[in-house]
Amino acid sequence: MKKQVRVAAGIVIGLACLLAQGQSGGMSRSSAQPAAVQYLYPEQVTLAAGKPGSVALHFRIAQGMHINSHTPREDYLIPTTFSIPDGADVRLKDAVYPAGTDLTLPIDPKTKLSVYTGEFIIQARIVAAPGNHLVEAKLHFQACDNSQCLPPRTIPVAFDVIGK
Amino acid sequence: MKRNTLVLCSVLVIFSVFAWAGWANWENRKQATERLLATAAQGTLAPDAAGGAAQYVSPLKGKPAPAFVLEDLNGRKVSLASYKGKAVLINFWATWCAPCKIETPWLIELRNQYAAQGFEVLGISTEGDDLADNDKAGWARDRADIAKSVQQMHIPYPVLINGDSLSKAYGGLDAMPTSFFVDRKGIVVASQLGLTSKEDIEGKILKALGN
């Protein structure tokens, strides 16, 4: 009898898991489009607590797209910026951004843009309190291809910081 | 034995309920997704008649342009309906969009060229920042940025704000610039996603004018 109850419970739990999986699959179908920029790594860094330490944050831009550099040539363009919310146990002291590369749109050779393409690295200097912290930083950017632009986006940049 | 049968029957009943719930859930989501896609009306790319680059074809083509009433930079309400009898180019653009800055001078020239034939451009700023209605500081910042762009580019045609509110009706407005060419009867006769060329835009204006 006990065995049958266990079997029945196992079937019920298994079905519940299948049902839950089906629901989450449905949700992912209706989720928003993937962002033009993806955070790659690191997932975890170890730093001396209380002292500024440098972290190289790697990002990848979707093929055929570009984003404005941190210092675009025109003031109407949205610069790429990295930030860590105030009040966290990990503080952003400053960030060093790569220089942008020049891009000319085929249809208008007179317009020259300062952009990032492919993979790029931001060197963030951060100060961490002692202990383990999950940093939920952000990257704000605005992406285009040669003929059209997507609205500005902010993506999460999550990594663990161990302050020793 | 009787008890065993009871347990097995209970398991089968529970199994059936779960299976039904799972199927019903999947079916509902499938239908919801189909409805969403139909509403969003993303559009397709199709080769042009001359065999050139692929052209954006909006599902709105051949249908009445969705009605709207938006404010201009002076706070005046402007409706699409008030342009009935004219050919209208509805140009969704954004202050942060470099291709839009290249396209706008073409639109100004074409507007001035064809205005006498009953043609007008409506520039609709679509900043993509999804501001809440009560975000006064955000709207003030948007208005200031848009006004600065309008002034710098000497835009003579009406510029309206909050194009984001038309996103659903106009097929998502996922990228800027996006334009719709509306004929004198209010029907969308052509559309354009992204920067093409002045000649391409002119051809679509002539179509909207019925020339």
Extended strand count of chain B: 9
Under CATH at level 1, the class of the largest domain in chain B stands as Alpha Beta
CATH superfamily of the largest domain in chain A: Thiol:disulfide interchange protein DsbD, N-terminal domain
Radius of gyration of chain B in whole Å, from Cα? Answer: 24 Å
Distance between the termini of chain A: 55 Å
Strand content of chain B: 15-25%
The value of Rg of chain A in angstroms is 22 Å
Q: What's the number of structural domains of chain A? A: 2
- State the CATH superfamily name of the largest domain in chain B: Glutaredoxin
> Using CB atoms under 8 Å apart, which protein chain pair has the greatest interface?
A-B, 36 and 43 residues
If you consult CATH, what is the topology of the largest domain in chain B?
Glutaredoxin
**CATH architecture term of the largest domain in chain B:** 3-Layer(aba) Sandwich
Number of helices of chain B: 4
Mean pLDDT of chain A: 85
Q: Fraction of residues of chain B in helices?
A: 40-55%
Largest sheet: number of strands, sense, barrel closure of chain B = 5 strands, mixed
Mean pLDDT of chain B, to the nearest integer, reads: 85
| Order of strands in the sheet with most strands of chain B | 7-6-5-8-9
User: Termini of chain B, distance in Å?
Assistant: 87 Å
The profile of the biggest β sheet of chain A is: 4 strands, antiparallel
Question: Explain this structure to me?
Answer:
The complex is a heterodimer of chains A (about 160) and B (about 210). Chain A is about 15% helix and about 50% strand. Chain A starts with a helix and ends with a strand. In chain A, the strands form three sheets. A four-stranded antiparallel β-sheet of chain A has the order 1-3-9-6, with no helix packed on it. The radius of gyration of chain A is 22 Å and the shape is elongated. Chain A has one helix at about 1-30; strands at about 35-40, 45, 50-60, 65-70, 80-85, 90-95, 100-105, 110-115, 120-130, 130-140, 145, 155-164. Chain A has two domains: about 1-30; about 30-165, Immunoglobulin-like (Sandwich), CATH 2.60.40.1250. In chain A, strand 7 and strand 8 (about 110-115) form a beta hairpin. Chain A has about 160 residues and is α+β, with helices and mostly antiparallel strands. With about 210 residues, chain B is α/β, with parallel strands linked by helices. Chain B has two domains: about 1-40; about 45-210, Glutaredoxin. Helices cover about 40% and strands about 20% of the residues of chain B. Chain B has four helices and nine strands. Chain B has helices spanning about 1-40, 100-115, 135-155, 200-210; strands at about 45, 55, 70, 75-80, 85-95, 120-125, 160, 180, 190-195. A five-stranded mixed β-sheet of chain B has the order 7-6-5-8-9, covered by helices on one side. Chain B has a two-stranded antiparallel sheet with strand order 1-2. A two-stranded antiparallel sheet of chain B has the order 3-4. In chain B, strand 8 (about 180) and strand 9 form a beta hairpin. Chain B is elongated. Chain B starts with a helix and ends with a helix. In chain B, about 30% of the residues are buried. Residues about 30-45 and about 45-55 of chain B have low confidence and may be disordered. At the A-B interface, helix 1 and strand 8 of A face helix 1, helix 2 and helix 3 of B.
